[in-house]
Amino acid sequence: MYKMSAKPMISAKQIQTRVKDLATEINSTFEFDVILSALTGAFMFTTDLCRAMANFKHRIAFIKASSYGSGMESSGKLKVTGLEKLDLKGKRVLIVDDILDTGRTMSTLVSMLKEAGATDIRTCVLMNKEERRSVDFHADYVGFEIANEFVVGYGLDFDEDYRTLPEVWTLEEV
Ligand code: IMP
Ligand code: MG
């Protein structure tokens, strides 16, 4: 059995402050055409980031990236849907995801986007678990560096629960 930590690991206020800073950093360092958001985990982060960047030229597109399995371990097999419907040829793309864990999702997405003809690709994640990396990958923009703990809330799930919470919590075994 698992339950949420007694207190949030990252409060809603901390997230909002950091997202605004991140938006300023991105706006001043990367001119791009499309925000490509990886559903479902990145949904809340993406909307807050869009509001904070507030650039009418940014287009928004969503893909679904899932690594099958349930629970706390990904199966390693990544399934991506929705990319085939997008025209990213010659586009400068900001990929947004919730968390960088093993790095497999992001590195696969970057390869797929290159294949689709995107010319400049940068990546943005709300959280980075550097310790967990199994492939060599660095995100260009990172909201929070976190320890090797399983986190939920603000888009992130455990078996599809917890996603709609406005703050990030750790999940503890009880
Ligand atoms: P990666 O491909 O191993 O980097 O994992 C990326 C995906 O695994 C993320 O987009 C999340 O959906 C999921 N994930 C990794 N760590 C966590 C976590 O601590 N909580 C919830 N989901 C996670
Ligand atoms: Mg997930």
Principal-axes geometry comes out as: globular
CATH class: Alpha Beta
N to C succession of SSEs: EHEHEEEHEEEE
Average pLDDT number: 95
Low-confidence stretches: none
Beta strand %: 25-35%
| CATH architecture label name | 3-Layer(aba) Sandwich
Notes on the structure:
The protein has 174 residues and is an alpha/beta fold. It has one domain: Rossmann fold, CATH 3.40.50.2020. The protein has 3 helices and 9 strands, in the order βαβαβββαββββ. It has helices at 12-29, 43-53, 104-115; strands at 2-4, 34-39, 59-66, 79-81, 92-100, 120-128, 141-145, 151-152, 169-173. It has a 6-stranded mixed sheet with strand order 4-3-2-5-6-7, sandwiched between helices. The chain has a 3-stranded antiparallel sheet with strand order 1-9-8, with no helix packed on it. Strand 2 (34-39), helix 2 and strand 3 form a beta-alpha-beta unit. It is globular, with a radius of gyration of 16 Å. The model has no long low-confidence stretch (mean pLDDT 95). The structure holds inosinic acid and magnesium ion. The site of magnesium ion has 2 residues, from loops.
